[in-house]
Amino acid sequence: MPRRFNVAGPCKPDIHYMLPAAARVPLARRLVADQNYFVIHAPRQSGKTTAMTNLAQELTAAGDYVAVLVSVEVGAAFNDDPGAAELAILSNWRNAAAVRLPAEMQPPRWPATEAGERISAALRAWAEAAPRPLVLFIDEIDALQNDTLISVLRQLRAGYDWRPGGFPWSLALIGLRDVRDYKVASGGSDRLNTASPFNIKTESLTLGDFSAGDVATLYGQHTAETGQRFTPEAVALAYALTLGQPWLVNALARRAVMEVAADPALAITPEHIQTAKELLIQRQDTHLDSLAERLREPRVRRVIEPMLAGAALGDLPADDRQFVVDLGLARRDPAGGLVIANPIYREVIPRVLANSPQDSLPHISPTWLKPTGSLDIDKLLTAFLAFWRQHGQPLLGSVHYHEVAAQLVLMAFLHRVVNGNGTLDREYAIGTRRIDLCLCYGGPQPVTLGIELKVWRDGEDDPLAEGLAQLDAYLDGLDLPSGWLVIFDRRSGQPPIAKRTAAEPAATPAGRTITLIRA
To answer: Do 241 and 178 sit in the same domain of this protein?
Structure first.
């Protein structure tokens, strides 16, 4: 039975295609050797648990340490009862050690002690009984919150001076965030805002994404075991769409080989990868669903909303910007500025945010279709104007991201138009003051429509001239002779949407005749 691409939980080398996991955190070995306590943080399903489980196995097998990965996730059920959390955590640790370590390296009976001291007492007893220096990797640390989190961190700090004989030789906390972003409910803040309860850390490491070569190596394992080939162009597209995000790399391949091209005799082509991408986004698997949930967090919204609007970030705290990077939603582009982490996330984010207005849409008959089933651009314009006049105002209130509400409602409408028979691609970036949409509709006569979205806000000049020039550049890239420029007037004191919504022809600087929509 061939192995498979993994999209759920840690990778196991006997059943999953995988890269050498421990090599993804090369500094960790040196930190362990030097008796350091450190932090490893990275987005969900990026390989943290896999990497540190494998590193623990390698360290133990080399004969120098008793190394094991344990979790504190079970303690999250008792975030306001540290004593109960300690009992659940220590029971789980004993079970993990029984599975992952030989008998002579199992922990002794946990000492009987008071609540609030059980973790430190247990680690002291284990370190003293272990036949080699004890190395502990503590996973899911940021599942803990409030009093339980503070208690566990303080016990680890308190035992730090007892090492190496009376406490773990080296220890790592593993989670989504760095220490200062662990959640608490005290002091008027929902975060620690400091590393103080764990100020013994020497480093905060993160896992990088896969390189293009890593993606080729991973996909090559499938070819070696099944004979099914990924063309070089398919591998290149998979990397371009994911930028090496590990879960996305695996999920794209899994969809491609299990659903899109299930016959191993078929080589995986770029077309298969594109179809797999659409399936991935439409079904919004657990990873993408959890990503969407992050968008509702105020700190995330403060960064993502202006990015969607093409506005400057303004005077946002550095911690907020770094938080969004640490979550894997954004990255720092080498050319400068924050950008969405990869093209798939760039498409998922506005699509997810448009879900609420999309669910709120009334029934709309597809009057934009010709009798042959092809898209009629003129009828689409008429349908949109009627829709916006009647439903635009109430739907704006259904959008959580108010600064881009109008753009998201339009996207919701266009998703109804596409309805599985095409695609809606988006481009947006900090400082561009626009969103570009490319609607591609299939059928007997495929149609491509380029759309430029602009917003006119209080205190600003009419964005018409800028929008016409930007639409020219966008249509050049799409090799289209015409398109739409939509200007949403969000200035205060304007007439109702039903009265001000209109369309007319306009000319771009390059001489294109386009449709100008003011809404």
So the answer is: no
